[in-house]
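dumping this here before i forget
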Amino acid sequence: MQRIAPIGWPPTPQGVPPEPWAFTASDIEIYDDVLDAKSQARLFEFLSGPGWAFGAYSDSAAGASRYWYKHFAGYFGNSQERGDAKAFEVQLESNAPLIAAMWARIRRSLLTEHELSRCYANAYPYGSEGGLHMDSNVRSHFTSIYYPSPTWSPNFAGETIFFNKDGSDVLKAVYPKPNRLVVFPGVIPHVARGVSRSFTGLRITLMFKTSKG
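structure:
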């Protein structure tokens, strides 16, 4: 089983401490109705198709839950990789034109100062779940999560929960509303909660990891 860590940016130089943490719930931005209905449906159909691999994780502890993933472009599983945003966009266009079109759209409108570092998707069936983690320790690194499912119910659970720095309290809970995008600094601890028994499909999310500025 291949183990894929939740990376997505150039490696941080060794010995560099985390930058000062001063974030609030207002730093977690939510955008609804990101795509038109036809584009959303086509994207969900594409993501739901074959090509999933198993072994991604957000908690490196022994015995922690693993889940399905698809890698489309950017940094992947090796802290020594090198690359640039333009090359990653070309890679994304080659591997997933529908997602490349979405990236171009949100970069023009919502992420105007961002450069792509990685694009991938995760999928959780009932019984899989994430662990509390940070995506980065650099303030200029951001994660955008898109929820492509055509429908969702509060009884399905599967929220994305954001915590304060020490994990002692919740900053914000984001409901996986269809066609929603949430954008946040990668230093904010967060976790994807598992879906309930009543949900029989896959909780699919599409991620864009970016550097700003």
